[in-house]
Automatic annotation (TrEMBL):
One of its GO terms (molecular function) is NADP+ binding. SUPFAM superfamilies: Glyceraldehyde-3-phosphate dehydrogenase-like, C-terminal domain, NAD(P)-binding Rossmann-fold domains. InterPro entries: AGPR, AGPR_AS, AGPR_dimerisation_dom, AGPR_type-1, NAD(P)-bd_dom_sf, Semialdehyde_DH_NAD-bd. Residues 3-142 form the Semialdehyde dehydrogenase NAD-binding domain. Keywords: Amino-acid biosynthesis, Arginine biosynthesis, Cytoplasm, NADP, Oxidoreductase. This is N-acetyl-gamma-glutamyl-phosphate reductase. It is an enzyme of class 1 (oxidoreductase). It is found in: Cytoplasm. Its EC number is 1.2.1.38. NCBIfam families: argC (TIGR01850). Pathway: Amino-acid biosynthesis; L-arginine biosynthesis; N(2)-acetyl-L-ornithine from L-glutamate: step 3/4.
Length: 346
């Protein structure tokens, strides 16, 4: 049994971690930490946890955490874990950071896209990027894991198998992403207000989304060509779910079925990636509450363009589910341990 602490336990991804850890056979929840809500009982904020988890939210204390637990999840906004995670890693505690603080390898990139100065830049080079299906070997020996962003997870799982093929034009890749509102976290804001989101679809952060450099950095690892990605994000009137429509220009003639073969081979050992047969494409409801990423494909023979549809549940595979999947790998457990949920439907 590994003992666990969640920092930021009362946010959306924190409370999803509570749900997952509570039914995981090898993880036990020892400590939950918040910021402005420390002192409160978690059920004051989340009555759905009544008679299941009724712990107090504590103040962050490095020594107490290091004494009590083996693994720490940071489910905190950008700019928090960079101050706290390094000391825990130094003390031998395994950490998984759900924020963007350790995903980018350069502090300049972090400053440019997160508009913050990184306070522990030497750690940027030491993190392991936790896109499980792609980085499994590195994750096994990681001292700490930078869990990918939600859009980055959907976009990269959809794109990476094509990056190795030599079949695509690397200069014209487009990801069109759409997210449910839980992706913005629990803190209310004007942009997530019901009246702003309901019966509305809007683009946001065009050309400025923090997942652009994250995706470009990982794509570079896979094709050794610097990619300038067009990435558009949209907020849609839905609670959970991300759908990315990815457009890739092909430089050779290839059928949808041959594309499917490429993905079948790439994901042959990936229990959470499911491929749709030709002529059907996944929707967000088909992965709701689960750790699956479902992919569908269409080659338009008129334009010689490949469209990839990638869907995930942003709080699961996009955040807490993938964080648990990474902890499973880190501990040498079956990667599906505690994650074998059938999606919720309808
Ligand atoms: N929601 C999602 O779908 C996804 C989220 N992420 C990332 O995961 C992280 C958490 O997101 P989410 O759960 O949505 O966010 P929320 O806004 O819902 O929750 C943030 C949590 O962090 C806590 N917190 C804030 N500042 C501090 C601090 N200085 N020290 C300790 N705790 C602090 C808050 O505590 P309090 O309320 O008490 O102040 C709260 O518990 C973010 O970095 C986000 O970008 C990544 C992928 C998907
Ligand atoms: C709907 C919505 O606002 N979504 C968030 C996604 C947050 C996330 O996954 O990103 P980081 O972990 O990189 O902060 C956004 O687009 O910024």
């Amino acid at each position: 049994m590994q003992k666990v602490c969640i920092v930021g336990a009362n946010g959306y991804s924190g409370v999803e971690l509570i749900r997952l850890i509570n039914q995981h056979p090898f993880l036990s929840l020892e400590l939950i930490v918040s910021h402005s809500n420390s002192g409160k009982v978690i059920t004051d904020l989340y009555p759905h946890l009544s008679e299941i988890v009724e712990e107090n939210l504590e103040v962050f204390d490095t020594n107490e955490i290091a004494e009590k637990v083996d693994i720490v999840f940071f489910a905190t906004p950008a700019g928090v874990s960079m101050d706290y995670l390094p000391a825990l890693v130094e003390l031998g505690i395994k950490c998984v950071d759900l924020s963007g603080d350790f995903r980018l390898r350069s502090s300049q990139l972090y400053k440019d896209w997160y508009k913050k100065i990184h306070t522990n830049e030497s750690y940027l080079q030491q993190s392991t990027y936790g896109l499980t299906e792609v980085n499994k070997e590195q994750i096994k020996n990681a001292s700490f894991i930078a869990n990918p962003g939600c859009y980055a997870t959907a976009g990269l799982l959809g794109l990476i198998p094509m990056m190795h093929t030599g079949l695509i034009n690397y200069e014209s890749i487009i990801i069109d992403g759409k997210s449910g509102v839980s992706g913005a976290g629990r803190n209310p804001s004007i942009s997530s207000h019901f009246a702003e989101v309901n019966e509305n679809v809007k683009a946001y952060k065009l050309g400025a989304h923090q997942h652009i450099p994250e995706i470009e950095q990982i794509l570079l690892d896979h094709c050794e060509i610097p990619i300038k990605l067009t990435f558009s994000t949209h907020l849609i009137p839905m609670t959970r779910g991300i759908l990315c429509t990815i457009y890739v220009d092909l430089i050779k003639k290839i059928s949808t079925n041959e594309i499917l073969d490429i993905y079948r081979s790439f994901y042959k050992n990936a229990p959470f990636v499911r491929l749709r047969q030709e002529g059907t494409w996944p929707s967000t409801k088909e992965v709701l509450g689960s750790n699956f990423c479902d992919l569908g494909f269409f080659v338009d023979e008129r334009t010689n363009r490949l469209t990839i549809i990638s869907v995930i549940d942003n709080v699961m595979k996009g955040a807490s589910g993938q964080a648990i999947q990474n902890v499973n790998i880190l501990n040498g457990w079956e990667e599906t341990t505690g994650l074998s949920f059938t999606p919720v439907y309808p």
